Amino acid sequence: MGKVVVVTSGKGGVGKTTSTAALGAALATFGQNVVVIDFDVGLRNLDLVMGAERRVVYDLINVVQGLAKLPQALIRDKRIDTLSLLPASQTHDKDALTEKGVARVIADLRRKFDWVICDSPAGIERGATLAMRHADIAIVVANPEVSSVRDSDRIIGLLDAKTLKAEKGERVEKHLLIARYDAARALRGEMMTIEDVLEILSIPLLGVIPESLEVLHASNIGSPVTLSNASSAPGRAYLDAARRLKGEAVTMTIPSDKKGLLDRLFGRRAA
Amino acid sequence: MNFGFLRRRSPASVARDRLQVLLAHERSFRGKADLIAVLRDEILAVIAKHVRMEPDSVQVKMDRGDSVTLLEIDVEISTPSSATLVAR
Questions:
Q1: How far is the C-alpha of B75 from the C-alpha of B34, rounded, in Å?
Q2: Which helix (H) or strand (E) holds A117?
Q3: Which member of A190, A193, A200 has the closest CB to residue B23?
Q4: What is the DSSP-derived secondary structure letter of residue A163?
Q5: What is B71-82 written as a DSSP string?
Q6: Which residues does A182 contact at the CB level (< 8 Å), separation at least 6?
Q7: Contact A120, A155 (CB under 8 A)
Q8: How far apart are CA A12 and CA A169, in angstroms?
């Protein structure tokens, strides 16, 4: 039986979809059978970030409503054959997702894959609560910025209250993934540090993804950053996070300010 | 002499401190988000057993201060003589 992971945050634009794609691809490169599901019904984007936007025929809603079979809707990645995508619908809205239908789809996927990674929509409404409903593990994505950290705290509260595990008196395993971290800014006291965020949210750290143009480049070309440039700083950070998710002990490396003295003097931003 | 003004606090530490205060508040109210609404309905139900009440005649307000939280309940009861009794 595979593990169900929800990638969630409350706030939009913090890097849920990027992280879902990067971690999913990373786990698949380790030989794991992975499916990534887009729960952002009406505003799908995981297909685009994965580079599969032209291959979508059926979607999650079609499967939930029984109009398509699961194998028809799953899109196998062209680069790694152990990676699949279940896209969201662009035409329906979130009300088309039924609790029962989602439960059935997740149960089917759990039997077929080692990892079922659910990309949650932003917010705390129906779409987000359905995406976290069946999770064994939650990855809370946060940026070191006040509104993102506040929303993460709210999401952690929901994970402890509204998931099936919580209702059974069990606990969803929660991990914090800090994205868009700028070491130079944190060093100058302009941005909260990793320690600050950890102290406030007090859930274990899965990884720190540095702010990087590589992430933008990866989504531009429709490839998870762990495939497009696995040796880049964000690529390595995501690969390490994926290993930790698998249970490996990988030393945590906080991206540091590697700029030289000249760059620092002239205040150039790292790419 | 206090030289505290020389050590201007960094924006990041201001952010951290504001969040810690705010989240301590929000966490204490987690799961009781509609405490005010529940109080309002229950107070209304108790008084309505004895006096005829309009549904909007109970106002409940909560002011969260640094050390004390003030709960303010206004109950408006219309009397047949149309004189209004306000219990506070």
A1: 19
A2: strand A115-119
A3: A200
A4: S
A5: EEEEEEEE-TT-
A6: A191, A210, A211
A7: no
A8: 29
* B contacts of A166 (beta carbons < 8 Å): none
Q: Are A88 and A40 in contact (CB under 8 A)?
A: yes
Smallest CA-to-CA distance from A109 within A31, A22, A27, A5 is with: A5
In 3D space, the residue among A39, A170, A167 whose CA is nearest the CA of residue A101 turns out to be A39
Tell me if B12 and A189 make a contact (CB, 8 A cut-off): yes
Tokens representing A96 are 């088309």
- Who's near A150: CB < 8 A, 6+ residues apart? B19, B22, B23, B26
The predicted-structure confidence for A78-135, as pLDDT tens digits, reads as follows: 999 999 999 999 888 778 889 999 999 999 999 999 999 999 999 999 999 999 999 9
Q: Which two tokens stand for residue A88?
A: 């969201």
Take residue B67 and report the two structure tokens written for it.
Answer: 């050390």
Which tokens sit at A178?
């800090």
